[in-house]
Amino acid sequence: MHVDAAGGGLVAAHTRPEPNWSFAHGADSLNVSGHPVLGVPVPAAGVSLVRRALLPEAAGGECIAATDRTPACSCSDLACLLLWARLRSLGRAAVAALVGRC
Known about the structure:
Blueprint: E1 2-4, H1 9-12, E2 29-32, E3 47-50, E4 59-60, E5 67-68, H2 77-101
Parallel strand pairs: 1-2
Antiparallel strand pairs: 2-3, 4-5
């Protein structure tokens, strides 16, 4: 099951009761957007998260010579990196607080 959570998934994930469409509830993949709520400075819509077991075999990375499991035609690496960095710098509690203020 794929969950298209780009529009409001980040907000919905921090509401009570939690929505029942997360990985914990059986989703195989979902996509999120990082710039509307999190303020990522580049468009980061459609960043997809996929269960590891469903990804293709790892290949050598073209850009950084690292293991790459990125599906073809995915969004830019920069958008994904900036989204990851923003989430890591904020942490779950700060993201929840940010969503609460919205």
